[in-house]
Amino acid sequence: MAAYVGLGGNLGDTAVKIRQALQKLDSADTHVVRISSIYETAPLANKDQPSYLNAVAEVRTTLTPQQLFGRLVSIENSLGRARNGRWESRTIDLDLLMHGDQIFESPGLIVPHPQMHLRTFVLKGMCEIAAELRHPTTGRTMQELADRLNGHDFWLDPDRPQLISVAGVIGVGKTTLATKLADKLGCGVLREAYDTNPYLPAACKGDREAALKSQLYFLESRYEQLNADTLPSGKVVLSDYVFAKDSLFAERTLDADQLNEYNTRHAQVERAISEPVLTIYLKDTPARILERVQQRSRPYESSINENSIAELGGDYDEMFADWAHSPLITLDAAQFNCMQNDHVSELASEIRCYICER
Fold this sequence. Notes:
CATH architecture of the largest domain: 3-Layer(aba) Sandwich
InterPro entries: DNK_dom, Hppk, Hppk_sf, P-loop_NTPase
Structural class: alpha/beta
Number of domains: 2
Radius of gyration: 24 Å
Distance between the termini: 34 Å
Oligomer: single chain
Helix content: 25-40%
Domain Deoxynucleoside kinase: 164-346
CATH superfamily of the largest domain: P-loop containing nucleotide triphosphate hydrolases
Protein name: 2-amino-4-hydroxy-6-hydroxymethyldihydropteridine pyrophosphokinase
Pathway: Cofactor biosynthesis; tetrahydrofolate biosynthesis; 2-amino-4-hydroxy-6-hydroxymethyl-7,8-dihydropteridine diphosphate from 7,8-dihydroneopterin triphosphate: step 4/4
Strand content: 15-25%
CATH topology of the largest domain: Rossmann fold
GO molecular function, one term: 2-amino-4-hydroxy-6-hydroxymethyldihydropteridine diphosphokinase activity
Largest sheet: 5 strands, antiparallel
Number of helices: 12
CATH class of the largest domain: Alpha Beta
Shape: elongated
């Protein structure tokens, strides 16, 4: 059986410890086949410690997941591993990442590793030696999972709000998707305040004073919905927008003086906003989006055309190119149809890998 082991540490000569661990692992019943490069990575939660060295190894083994895990613990102990806490420094850390395509859970072991898909320092090594290998739970390749992280590392944290934000240009289908996902996940939906914003119609007609009032109205409504007091720890909820897009629209609609006023309030609000644990970016062609916008016949959307949709889509692409707030799942409406129940069900199953449900 092919299995994959993550190796790392940040105390002493970690590179030597990794080599020693691999030598001890290579045996009659577990043969080391391939080893990734060793990467230097920043610590996760506890930043006040040295950087880590990490690598991934592929092994061929006749051991069961429990037996291989026991072997890894034994090797850690033989190399002086002290178990002082989850986020503390360690001489050597050996994680059983995958064991074939098995999905296994016991009180002391979960396979595949429940957070490997959140760690660039793991997926980078996996991509080096098995980029097209599929994760048994998500069904995605190692490369697909790595691309969602954009070079960053995340972790499941039950003590923060479990906010899932659905993003995309106007008319792409965010609210429909968020509503259907919430039904699958058994949670609520936070919707943009389009219908209650009294300044929006005038702003869409070019009223400059209304433009600022409209933008501030959206900002305040988002603050009310997304601040940490509103979203208690462990609560799973979807929003049909991502907070970061608020500035994107302000820069497009406000003049310099208005933007300064807006930015002052935005800086005050931003500090209290809960970051999403997962962001879903829904994309479609400008022509298809315009068709949906025209079908719903909202008066304040009458000036929208394909060019404006394409320009806004470019802004979203640019924003998400440097996305560091959460893992990012990008959906192309040409392959993903939020009106098809099986598509939504599969996505909901994937989402469960990125949240802590209580």
